[in-house]
Every structure is written in structure tokens, then in C-alpha cells.
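User: I'm preparing a small set of examples for a lab meeting where we compare how different chains pack in three dimensions. I only have the primary sequence for this one, and I'd like the structure in C-alpha cell form so I can line it up with the others. Please keep the answer compact; I'll paste it straight into my notes.
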Amino acid sequence: MSLMPKHLSNIASLLKLKAQSHSKKTPLRQWCFFASLTIALLSGCQEKPAPSPTASPTATAIPTAAVTKGKEPEGILERVKARGKLICGVNGKLSGFSYVDDKVGWSGLDVDYCRAIAAAVLGDAKAVEFKPLLAKDRFTAIQNGDVDILMRNTSRTLTRDVTLNISFAPTTFFDGQGVMLRVGAKPTSISPSPSASSPSSPSLSSPSPSPTSSPSASPSPTSSPDKDSKSDKQTPGTIEAPKSNEESAIALKELTDKKICVETGINATNLESTFKEANIAIESIILPDLDGVLNAYAKGDCDAISSEKSQLAAWRSKLPRPADHKILDLSLSREPLSPALVGNDDRWRDVVTWVVYATFYAEELGINMDNYQIFKDTKNPEVARFLGTSDSLGIELGLAPDWTTQILKQVGNYNDIYNRNLAPLDIPRGLNRTWKKGGLLYSMPFR
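Assistant: Understood. Below is the C-alpha cell output for the 447-residue chain.
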């Protein structure tokens, strides 16, 4: 059965007959013409083929928005804005840095820096989801995108800095391994010992932070003005390193012939090498984890304990008589605790970096969460630029012009953060003072 329409079939038959009758007379050129005409007529009755997948006529092109509608924003800054909250990796069991309880909720220096970032990016310091992480999982969480920022008492070291896709923001707390000595009477009965949060240490060669005791109730979230505060007064528990070898030797001699409990690993190595170099005899009791170290000290099996000073101070604050325990003016290591983030997002690193600097710089300028409003109409160009009332530096970061004001309004400057979280633990500022007061906190210029 022919698929050709009837009228076209008749035309084709006539052409064929005509060609046969004139086959001897018809030139080749005319034959080709008739053949082409026949083919054209036959092809006109076929179904139109589907357009080629490569064709893209402008009149029927799919809008760009429809193509990218389901595509996730590429940068972390855009992702956080689209999500409406910041996901912050923390310890969760470290008093003074990141801890959660049923009464106060989340508190600590690390927690406040997560809130400062949320205030700058989203205008809401409460728009944070805190994600507790084990030390062994923290860097993987960054690389996999499980968290936007890691604020988990993590020391910045060379080997970590060159780890694939890991980067660091400015240090928020300068810590160091120290020694706490019992200066009061030994316990007469076994007293409960605070438990450690993790079995690893933030040493120069270890990828994990030192364990810490589980904290007690968090300090009240009140702030104090930027004048010299409790945290600036030096006490035996200072984080500041000894000023000379002679002072260090004096601190070491206090431990002559003492039994010192320490966790196995880099902390034990630091302890033994320091005293060996100083030619001072001690008896180091090396235990497999910090829980064992704390229990041994609580029972009176050792005279002193060695770990990071901030963690010693947090643990001391929960003892029945904190004054019976002295943190010596002695540093066995350097532990610059810094925010960690993904290494392939320069824009996000810039945001986190300048949020940290903003807390430093606000303290230098004397602007805190209690007085920031009086600077609103300032004539000082430096302050106006910082607060975004003249130059909109925030736009360079992808933030609102008042991003620094939001940090001050909702979280405060570094002094506010420190006084709220660490001063109650009797941890003096020491190296964590602003450079104007002899410390290491130094902001890059806001211009």
C-alpha cells in the first residue's frame, strides 16, 4: 500500500510517462530537473523531523533562571545567606570556650565568635546551628561541607595549614601547655573529678585538641566597659609566657621532685624535655587519657598536673577550693587557637578574618556593646569608616554597611567576649591583650 497522497501519485505517474516518451529526446539537464522536482514533492508529504538537540533558537531558548533554579550557590557566604543560618562546628564540652547546658544554653568564647559571624553576615547573632564535633572528625567536617566554620579550640600549626583544603583565620586565643600545682592540703578522701571531653591534645604535632573537663554553669552573659578589667590583672594563673629564662627557671624549680600527672603523647614529651633541659628532677606519671590524669590528681596521687592553661583554669574553677591550686607562670608550648575553614573559598575566609579583626579593632577604638550607639554620629573619620557610616567597607566583603555595628550590638568587642566567658574562670588576658597593652591582638587596618 502506497503512503503517497493520491494527487502526488498522479503527478509522479505523468512525469514518469513524459520522461519515458521523451527519453531519447530529453537532455540530461531536464531529466535531473524532473527527478529533483519529484523528490521535493515526495519529501513534502513526510512528517517534519524533530529539531536537532544542538539547535538553540533565541526565540525559544529556556530562560537562564530556569536552568540554574535548583543549583546550590557556589560560595559559603552565599550558601549561608540562602540558608538563613550559620552552621558552626564546636567542642560543646569546654567551659569558657563552647559549652551547652539546659539553663543558659550555648556559651563560650568560641560560641560568641560563631554569633559574631552570624551577626555580620545575617544581621542575627542567634541564627547559628552549633554542631558538636569530636576532635577526630573536625577537619573532615570542614572538607565535606558539614560545617561552615570550625570554632573548636584548634591550634594553628604548619602541618595543619598545608592540609588539603583547610585554612585558618586570625588567632582568637593564645594558649600554651602549663602546669598546675597543688598549694593547699592534699585531699583526705577521694573527691569526684571532672571528666575529660576528648582524648586528644592541641599540641604542635597532634591533630587534636587537649581534652578538657566538663564545665559547670556558664557565666552570665553580661558585658563590661572597655576600661582595664579583671581579665587584665595578672595573677599566678596567667597565660602570658615568662619574661626571661631566669623567671622560667624559678617556676620550674617550684616543681623539683614533684609528681606530675600528664597525658601520654605530645604533652608528656613537652613536659619531660623541658625539665630535662633545665636539669630539674621530677617524677612524671604518664597516663593514657586525661580522665585518668584528673582522677589521679583529685585523689592526691600527684602533686601537679600538666595540660593547656585555659583548660587547667576551667578545671580549677570547679574544684571545691580553687585557691588551693596554682597555675604556674610557665609555658611548655605555644597553642594559637584559631578558627578553621575550607581552604578553597577566599571570599569566605575574608569574611571570617575581618569579623575577628573587627572585635580586635573595636576594642582598640574603645567601642563596645554598651557605648557603640554614641559613636553613630561621630566626626572621627576612622571610627565612621569602621562603623560604616561613611565608607561602606562591608560591601567589599559582600556584607551590609552596618556589619560591624551588628557585631558590637549583639556580641561586643574582644574585651566584652573575654570578660563574659574567660574572666570568670580567672584566666588573665596576658598575651590576649591588645597590642596597645603589650599583647598579641593586632587588627589589620580598616581602610
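A couple of notes for your slides: Residues 76-173+337-437 form a domain with the D-Maltodextrin-Binding Protein; domain 2 fold (CATH 3.40.190.10). The radius of gyration is 35 Å.

User: Perfect, thanks.
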